[in-house]
Design brief:
Strand order of the largest sheet of chain A: 2-1-5-6-7-4-3
Number of domains of chain A: 3
Oligomer: heterodimer
Number of helices of chain B: 3
Helix content of chain A: 25-40%
Structural class of chain A: alpha+beta
Order of helices and strands of chain B: HEEEEHEEHE
CATH superfamily of the largest domain in chain A: GAF domain
Strand content of chain B: 35-45%
CATH class of the largest domain in chain A: Alpha Beta
Shape of chain A: elongated
Shape of chain B: globular
CATH architecture of chain B: Roll
Distance between the termini of chain B: 21 Å
Distance between the termini of chain A: 79 Å
CATH topology of the largest domain in chain A: Beta-Lactamase
Number of strands of chain A: 20
Strand order of the largest sheet of chain B: 2-1-5-6-7-4-3
């Protein structure tokens, strides 16, 4: 029986700020033939009171050395105090699956994907080391002065704050309002001013941005594939992902890129770029899961280097669960009420058919304002299923089919009032038979128009109803 | 050394880089410290490595048991990096006449760090002087830019 290892002179828990990844760590190893080696490290992860994990991404000299001689030393800088620590380590195992591996893999792939390096820059294993000793190096004062300026905010996800968020969500009258309320509340209560919500797109394995806050370009309608960037990774893994020290990783990843094959990732022109900070240094994304269904992803970011704590991740994940249920409930409620409301309306205004315009055909007030705006040309590209207004990409897929439907009806007989129900029953829109996403597509379309096309607006007119306002002379062109 | 340090690489090494050295004791336990600057000798087979006296005292623990040393030199803004393997032949206090070169290399490093958003104020407390000079005989040179090629032996040509 072996005696329990003596306690570390400095507990690893005191080194939390060293594990944020803000300042590069250094790894020292030694080959069996006695040749020492030093290498820069992308990250050191805390595992437990006696263990840390290092990412193993390439079969490099350090990796060969520790397989011959498991002794190593790592040098870490506490980004808050500037204190430099040296840890004596012994390799105990390499994990290639499990929660530790997954959490390291997701962080690394978020960077890889951000830099177009997916596949090249990936985690092969999590090398778990026993920590034999921790020494504070007094002779290397490190980098204190400026780093202190960015000391992390205190975790803000208190129970009270969570109750406040949940109260705000409860009061939201519609899904549309819920989305804005949520992002507003996250900023007001937690101080996270850059955030976005993406929900399921028309194709499986894609998400579309439906609401964002804190970006000059709202980016409504921009899409992300599963596995792309932090949002796509969260969706793919259905787990939260937190990245700190992005800038440093990006520099590191760029170096890898230059050393690797040139991997061009041209973006099709009919894509709206995801909004984002020019140099995000911290990102935190959580899945919106309700009844085991992935509805979307909530992502917050900051240009401060290590803005989000590990606790923030856990708490935002919890919040993601509330939000997902709230979104799902709002969707179910809107669909149910739309149907009920429509049924009543149908009884009251008999005889009417779903395709009958609910307003007179004569073009009225909106056209009075039309002269104030320059004439516009809207084009529908049938094959690509996308709408361009004045040559600029606006929407694609289902939102594009809906918009085209609205615009052609408006042109043909001046229809301005529309209901969700009528759109839902319209075969020409080819909605999927179940979970048709119509409500979220309409939210997306309305917000996209508000952002990019002031001449065409969708004005909510009660639950399940909206009015189309065209305030410019508009010509419609259908392309093959 | 079979292949001397090429001119272009010598210029890169002296351009003001982040430098870290690795050593080990008799039991092959690794150790290390940060270094300040490097000068490549005219014979292209020896370098002088400058470390603060405190770092030198830290390294003395392992250097007393083995003179073998690894020196990693990294340009933070691009992570272009290489590693020298060598043997420490002697350790002496750095001369006053060497100080301007140490300061020049540090200044260049701080400017590079500023270019990637790390303010030089971060290094205000970094103790540079007094320094010790480690005279090193270089045995090998390796590519250390992170990525698939890291660890390749440099064939007497400049790394990409």
């Amino acid at each position: 029986m072996t005696a329990p290892a003596p306690a570390l002179a400095i507990p690893l828990e005191r080194l939390t700020a060293c594990f944020q990844g803000l300042i590069p760590a250094w790894l020292f190893t030694c080959a069996a033939d006695g040749t020492p080696n030093a290498a820069i490290l992308s990250h050191v992860d805390y595992v437990d009171a006696r263990h840390v994990a290092l990412s193993f991404q390439f079969f490099n000299k350090s990796k060969r050395n520790v397989s011959e001689n498991p002794q190593a030393a790592v040098r870490l800088v506490d980004a808050e105090s500037g204190q430099v620590y040296q840890l004596a380590l012994r390799l105990v195992r390499t994990e290639t699956s499990g929660p530790l591996f997954e959490s390291m893999r997701l962080r690394i792939e978020a960077i890889a994907s951000y830099s177009g390096l997916k596949g090249v820059f990936r985690l092969l294993g999590a090398d778990v080391y026993e920590v034999l000793s921790v020494e504070a190096l007094e002779h290397e004062p490190g980098y204190p002065a400026a780093v202190r300026r960015d000391t992390p905010a205190e975790p803000k996800f208190t129970m009270r704050a969570m109750q406040e968020v949940s109260e705000c969500l409860r009061q939201a009258q519609s899904l549309d309002a819920l989305l804005d309320t949520l992002l507003e509340t996250i900023e007001r209560i937690f101080g996270f001013g850059h955030s976005m919500i993406l929900l399921g797109a028309d194709e499986p394995d894609r998400l579309t941005l439906v609401a964002s806050r804190g970006y000059p370009e709202g980016g409504v309608g921009s899409e992300v594939g599963f596995g792309e960037g932090i949002v796509g990774l969260v969706a793919e893994a259905r787990r939260p992902v937190r990245v700190s020290g992005m800038l440093r990783y990006m520099v590191y990843a760029d170096a890898v890129a230059r050393r690797s094959l040139a991997m061009g990732m041209p973006l099709p022109t009919s894509r709206i770029p995801l909004p984002g900070l020019p140099n995000p240094d911290s990102q935190l994304g959580v899945p919106l899961l309700a009844r085991d269904e992935l509805l979307g992803v909530l992502c917050i970011e900051s240009d401060l280097p290590y803005r989000f704590h590990e606790e923030d991740r856990a708490n935002l994940e919890l919040l993601g669960g509330f939000v997902a249920l709230a979104i799902q409930n709002a969707l179910l409620l809107e669909r149910a009420e739309t149907r009920a409301g429509e049924a009543e309306a149908a009884r009251a205004i008999a005889p009417t058919t779903p395709s009958t315009p609910t307003t007179p055909a004569a073009p009225i007030p909106d056209d009075a304002r039309a002269t104030r705006r320059a004439p516009m040309v809207a084009e529908f590209f049938t094959h690509e299923e996308c709408v361009l207004v004045d040559g600029e990409y606006l929407v694609r897929s289902l939102p594009a089919r809906i918009l085209w439907k609205l615009l052609t009806e408006h042109e043909q007989d001046g229809t301005r009032e529309f209901t969700n129900r009528r759109l839902r029953l319209d075969k020409s829109l080819a909605l999927p038979p179940v979970k048709d996403n119509l409500e979220t597509r309409l939210i997306l379309l309305r917000r996209r128009l508000a952002e990019r096309c002031p001449g065409i607006q969708m004005i909510p007119a009660g639950r399940g109803r909206f009015r189309l306002e065209v305030t410019a002379a508009l010509s419609l062109v259908r392309r093959p | 050394m079979e292949r001397p340090i090429p001119d272009e690489l010598a210029a890169f090494l002296e351009s003001g880089l982040a430098i870290v050295v690795g050593t080990r004791d008799a039991a092959l336990r690794p150790d290390g410290a940060a270094a300040l600057a490097v000068r490549v000798h005219a014979d292209r087979a020896h370098v002088t490595l400058f470390v603060s006296d405190a770092s030198a005292a830290h390294l003395a623990r392992s250097l007393a048991e083995s003179p073998r040393i690894a020196v990693v030199l990294d340009l933070p803004s691009t992570h272009r990096a290489c590693q020298l393997k060598g043997t420490v032949r002697s350790v002496r206090p750095a001369a006053d006449a060497e100080r301007p070169e140490i300061d020049r290399q540090r200044e260049a490093l701080y400017r590079d760090l500023e270019s990637i958003g790390i303010p030089s104020a971060m290094f205000a407390q970094w103790r540079v002087w007094p320094s010790m000079a480690l005279e090193i005989e270089v045995q090998a040179l390796y590519e250390q830019t992170p990525g698939p090629g890291a660890g390749d032996r440099l064939q007497g040509v400049a790394p990409r």
